[in-house]
Amino acid sequence: MKSVRIDASKSYDVLIAPGLAAETGARVKELLNPDACMIAADDRVYELYGEEVRRSLESASIRTSVFTFLHGESSKNLATYQALLERMCAERITRTDIVVALGGGVTGDMAGFAAATYQRGIRFVQVPTTLLAMVDSSVGGKTAVDLPQGKNMVGAFCQPSLVLCDTKTLTTLPAEEFACGCAEIIKYAMIESEPFFESLEETPIADQLEEVISTCVAMKRDYVNRDEFDTGDRIFLNFGHTFGHAIEACSGFSILHGQGVAIGMAVMTRAAAARGLCPESAVERLVALLKRYDLPTVSPYRRELLLSAALSDKKAQGGTVRLVVPERIGKCFVEPVPKNQIGEWMRDGGIVP
To answer: d(Cα 330, Cα 193) in Å, to the nearest integer?
Structure first.
């Protein structure tokens, strides 16, 4: 088993191994000793793993209730969030109890936000079941729901008490969802480590899961420890996300998050190369690695449509948007770009008018 310690405003462990979902109850009882628990999961994940987790909690003498919702990004909204809070009230969840977020990033974000705000904050545990959530969204304390105007517009910073990454759950993950996690893994290599990028070129991610997940979590740990509340270095984790979020929004979220990030990374790296800021070889290697996992690298939407969505992104500050720009594989820098020049970066990245 791999273990990574996060030391933010709350310290906690991220555990990585097959079979951890079945150990949820025992580990929660030992660490947190709650009287009651609310499991939050989408309908698909609960059908696969919900009863296993519920039984483990009840076997540890933890009174357990369940809230399920329709799978998909479209459920990560204020209405579902409110329904979860009302269910927690109905089940008499108290401030000494916990929420268990069982599922991918949508569940973790929304259940974490509910935990952050219910009775001014209760503890929660992340049990991610997607590769993307294991390497990224379950760690670091960002929780949120979406508004029609954009992703993650309403949220809070709330660190979990424990993260249990059960790699066995990845065996039931659809191929395109697994690929979305690969996009985030490639992102970490692009911003932080060319040797890690080379290891991804040499060995399939599926053949080194625990090592890859722990490597990404350790990278994120370092950013979170330095910049928990996303006012400085943590912005590097948003490489590919400004344009990626815009693409997701324009698609009505039919394009998955990892797919949007893949396109966003490719667009930004092409733009950097076109401006002489990074070598063309970086574009070629990035695109080749993304395509290995059948990830898209070209925007299906035109600049005019994407521009409005990109300028609504929460990373926009005043008259500028902070873009994370690659200098080479393994190194990026932040460029504050006036809003009226974002369209030019999109153009240089290959997005048609």
So the answer is: 4
Residue 297's CATH number: 1.20.1090.10
Q: Are 14 and 128 in contact (CB under 8 A)?
A: no
Whether 111 maps to a domain, the answer reads yes
Domain that holds residue 139: 2-171
**Residue-wise pLDDT tens digits, 282-319:** 999 999 999 999 999 999 999 999 998 888 766 666 78
Q: Could you tell me which of 90, 100, 84, 121 has the C-alpha nearest to residue 29?
A: 100
Enumerate residues 6+ apart whose C-beta is below 8 A from 279: 273, 328
Q: How many CA atoms lie within 13 A of 146 on its CB side?
A: 20
We report the CATH number of the domain holding residue 10 as 3.40.50.1970
pLDDT at 316: 65
In angstroms, what is the C-alpha Rg of the chain?
A: 20
Neighbours of 10 (CB within 10 A): 13
232 in a structural domain? yes
Distance CA 349, CA 270 (A): 5
How far apart (Å, rounded) are the C-alpha atoms in residues 13 and 305? 42
pLDDT digit string, tens, across residues 2-36: 999 999 999 999 999 999 999 999 999 999 999 99
Phi, psi of 147, rounded to the nearest 5 degrees: -115, 165
What does DSSP assign to residue 300? S
- Of 75, 5, 63, 66, nearest to 38 (Cα)? 66
Assess contact for 237 and 259: CB atoms under 8 A: no
196 exposure class (CB count in 10 Å sphere: 0-12, 13-18, 19+): buried
- Cβ-contact 56, 24 below 8 angstroms: yes
248 touches 74 (CB < 8 A)? no
Q: Which of 171, 202, 225 represents a domain boundary (last residue)? A: 171
Strands 123-128 and 98-103: parallel
Virtual torsion, Cα 203, 208, 211, 214, nearest 10 deg = 110
Mapping DSSP to helix (H, G, I), strand (E, B) and coil, where does residue 210 land?
Answer: helix
